[in-house]
Design brief:
This protein is mainly β and 164 residues long. The protein contains no helices and nine strands.
């Protein structure tokens, strides 16, 4: 190319469509679409959930620490859970159960609280169906002696199954 020579531009071509520099929000992207299972990976359009709840529980008592209503037409994937207390030694007296409506869930019934913390959640895998009330209910052992404040954090996402 000669630097002193003018560049000729064709005049009969239509303007070139310039693609945006950022991907579209929740829209189709260019390339090959990949469908991953929504229970394993948060799909596009999923709603993140990161909820913290607490309660003062007397010895031998129980309380609902976290309550999450699952919307109609969506599922809830629980990915992590953790517990804390004002006095961390109190966690030795804590057990918890996962309930949908009033039904305890298999594998997560009267579990010791030695799982995860508020800052570092333990990985768990649980799927809740549509239109249920997901709850974490904590129980303090009768041997606790005093009332303790317990804290629970649940992380996951709501998603809908889309037929392709």
């Amino acid at each position: 190319m000669d630097p002193g020579r003018p560049i000729q531009v064709p005049r009969d071509l239509a303007p070139v469509q310039i693609l945006p520099s950022q991907p579209g929000a929740l829209g189709l992207e260019y390339g090959t679409p990949v469908a991953l299972p929504g229970q394993a990976f948060a799909p596009a359009g999923a709603t993140p959930v990161d909820q913290v709840g607490d309660g003062n529980i007397a010895p031998g008592g129980s309380a609902t620490l976290v309550q999450i209503p699952v919307p109609d037409g969506q599922r809830f994937r629980v990915a992590g859970i953790g517990f804390g207390a004002d006095d961390e030694t109190a966690l030795g007296f804590l057990s918890w159960s996962m309930l949908e409506n009033a039904d305890p869930q298999i594998g997560y019934n009267t579990v010791p609280a030695a799982i995860g913390s508020i800052q570092q959640l333990a990985d768990i895998f649980h799927l809740s169906g549509s239109s249920v009330l997901f709850r974490i209910v904590a129980n303090s052992a009768a041997t606790a002696g005093v009332t303790f404040r317990f804290i629970c954090r649940v992380r996951g996402w709501f998603y809908a199954i889309k037929e392709s």
